[in-house]
Amino acid sequence: MSRRKFSVEEKLAILKEAEATGIAQTIRRHGIYAKMIYRWRDQLETGGRDGLKAYQRVDPELRRLQLENLALKKLVAEKELALAVKEELLKKTQSRNKTG
Fold first, then answer.
1. CA distances from 56 to 52, 53, 59, 70, 75 (A)
2. Contact yes or no for 37/15 (Cβ under 8 A)
3. Theoretical Cys-Cys bridge with 43: which of 37, 51, 56, 79, CB 3.0 to 4.6 Å?
4. What does the record list as coiled-coil region(s) (predicted)?
5. Residue 52 has what DSSP assignment?
6. Rounded to whole angstroms, how far apart are CA atoms 57 and 6?
7. What's the rounded Cα separation, in Å, for the pair 84 and 25?
8. What is the rounded end-to-end Cα distance, in angstroms, of the chain?
9. DSSP H stretches of helix in 1-100
10. Rounded CA gap, 18 and 25, in Å?
11. Which of 10, 13, 23 is nearest to 54 (CA)?
């Protein structure tokens, strides 16, 4: 089978056809693999119509910065959580000291 790029509309039509007539008949008619149908269906469920758009390569530098940003956000979240726990413990110990 030769490699072919499908538009979002073509993918949606093929998915609709597969649902109506069955995957085996659809893959024979269009000359594609069943795995492609399942992948498109998953992409549609997770990302909607935008999930079916053609994959575009992300700049490695941009991806590195995105990962670094994510790591920093996690670090800040962990620090905020630790600070909130310490403040809560401090409030509890102060309230015990006043009453006891």
1. 12, 9, 9, 21, 30
2. yes
3. 51
4. 62-92
5. T
6. 17
7. 59
8. 80
9. 8-21, 23-30, 34-51, 60-99
10. 8
11. 10
